[in-house]
Amino acid sequence: MLSPVVFLVFVCVFLPATATAVVGDGMTVTLPLERAFPTSHGVEVSQLKARDRVRHGRILQSSYGVVDFPVEGTYDPFLVGLYFTRVQLGSPPKEFYVQIDTGSDVLWVSCASCNGCPTSSGLQQIQLDFFDPSSSSTARPISCSDQRCALGEQSSDSGCSTQNQCSYTFQYGDGSGTSGYYVADFMHFNTIVGNSLTSNSSAPVVFGCSTSQTGDLTKPDRAIDGIFGFGQQGLSVIAQLSSQRVTPNVFSHCLKGSNGGGGILVLGQIVEPNLVYTPLVPSQPHYNLNLQSIALNGQTMPISPEVFETSSNRGTIVDSGTTLAYLAEEAYDPFINAINQAVSQNVRPLVTKGNQCYLTTSSVGDIFPTVSLTFAGGATMVLRAADYLIQQNSIGGAAVWCMGFQKIPGQGLTILGDLVLKDKIIVYDLAGQRVGWANYDCSQAVNVSATTSRGKTEYVNAGQIGNNSSPRSDSYKLLLSFILTSVLHVLVRGRNSIL
């Protein structure tokens, strides 16, 4: 458990006004969200499904500041990609590319002397790095007697090494896995205050130091430095930062579905008048929602609500790490049959490698029905044709569109992935135990709610700063972070209980 005494020092400099952020006394933390792809080109739906199967195996059983980074990459469902952000850890700070993963809880990165960890990545712009605790003046291993080691049991198989280090093992359904030990060190944030004032802040967090990786994690084609778990358990960074009153206990994202892709990831609550909310299913390790019905053009389909009820092997999960979308097996065939019947006069149906596809010369928005997903409390998510179909190729001047909803044989899981979540604000309100959404142009700025030290709610306009800033290449920002960390280290020397 962290000591209640935590010293925070802010080192500030004036920089040119590069953002339209307007901040009151409250601040919210935003991390860069990027879409990256290997150097290869288009792939089949079957390959996307295979990638998602791997992804599903990875779903494991005070004043604030605003950070608004540019989003890079290109969104295209036929280029195998992943969403990632950059985090800075240690003293001096070192930057790591980590996958955004709402299906697990712990932040972990590859560490020095890692067995099986990839050393290069096929993803553009990615240069892999390794965290070395001996090179960070503020790194502290977590002992087996530390209360935070017990928190690790919520998210992994925790153990105790011969060196009295709290260790962990993550084993994924696809056979891949990682193991290592927990470390406490500073995570650094670049925060924007006002139009021209930039400050660097940091907070102590516990994260995994990976010393072994197996299976797909060792492959270099989509390799990154680690995984950033955004789950609800005690060792998630969200839980740690909110317990320290560094960030609110809520995060949001908006994934851009066209014109370059990318998006926004905010440790804070995006505010939009059209947001609708539904409660999270309680006592679940993932972001489970209570889906009650599906309608086509306003006509509710005759599917029993029991099909979507949450249990050990069924339920509805919101997962931004899944490329496609998945329906419970009992609902999939009735859904496909209803779609086929609705468009039978306007398209030519065909099956390609087991996937339901359609050949048409018309706009799919004009001929395919609107799909409405209704959740507990009456919240409805409306899907256009482009939210459940993927254009694959063309044949003789006609476009081939394939069904983006798939099924996982033998399972009752419904998973809402990127195909459904794109072009929407999605808010994960952990404090209120609810998830909200609204259609939105994710290339635009968003308003983020922030509660000030006086308890007043104010709103931050979080837009995109620009595309010429990279924390890894910007030694000036890293220098500021190092100055901050050095001052903090002096203050906390002898107070190891903070870490």
From TrEMBL:
Subcellular location as annotated: Membrane
SUPFAM superfamilies associated with the record: Acid proteases
GO cellular component, one term: membrane
Keyword Acyltransferase among record annotations: no
InterPro entries from the UniProt entry: Aspartic_peptidase_A1, Pepsin-like_plant, PEPTIDASE_A1, Peptidase_aspartic_dom_sf, TAXi_C, TAXi_N
Residue ranges of every copy of the Peptidase A1 domain listed in the record: 83-438
Presence of keyword Cell cycle: no
Molecular function via GO: aspartic-type endopeptidase activity
Secretion signal span: 1-21
Residue numbers annotated as active site: 101, 319
Main location: membrane
GO biological process, one term: proteolysis
Keywords from the named record: Aspartyl protease, Glycoprotein, Hydrolase, Membrane, Protease, Signal, Transmembrane, Transmembrane helix
Gene3D superfamilies named in the record: Acid Proteases
Pfam name, any one: TAXi_N
Family: Belongs to the peptidase A1 family.
Annotated protein name in UniProt: Aspartic proteinase-like protein 2
Organism lineage string: Eukaryota, Viridiplantae, Streptophyta, Embryophyta, Tracheophyta
